[in-house]
Specification:
InterPro entries: CFA-57 (IPR052993). The protein has 104 residues and is mainly beta. Helix content is 7%, strand content 43%. The strands form three sheets. It has a four-stranded antiparallel beta sheet with strand order 3-4-5-6, with no helix packed on it. It has a three-stranded antiparallel beta sheet with strand order 7-8-9. A hairpin with a 2-residue loop joins strand 3 and strand 4.
Length: 104
């Protein structure tokens, strides 16, 4: 993460950054800092609402901890049921968006 020095931000505060963004039929998905992607859905008021967060699962390996991996790219299956993320550490992760709806 990048540290920002600005009159409105404390010098020691880390600000998450967006490293990937992907549009889909309901809105868009964007990365939000290390190991997290956020889904935003279009509202009736011509805005967007954050509907859920997807986190890369933690593993027991010290080589590529999830919280230190930045999302490089994202893609959706044509049916928009599966989201695949790739990270700056060369890892691929897939998430079933339909099961995320069930668990909501």
């Amino acid at each position: 993460m990048k540290k920002m020095k600005d009159s409105g931000v404390d010098e020691g505060v880390s600000v998450p950054r967006i490293t990937a963004i992907l549009s889909y039929s309901k809105g868009f998905i964007c990365s939000y800092g290390a190991g997290t992607a956020c889904l935003f859905e279009k509202t009736k008021e011509d805005g967007y609402r954050r509907t859920r967060d997807i986190r890369i699962p933690a593993d027991n390996s010290d080589l590529t901890p999830a919280e230190s991996q930045l999302i490089d790219t994202m893609c959706l299956s044509p049916s928009e049921e599966t989201l695949v993320l790739s990270t700056d550490r060369g890892q691929l992760y897939s998430f079933s968006l339909s099961s995320l709806d069930i668990n909501k």
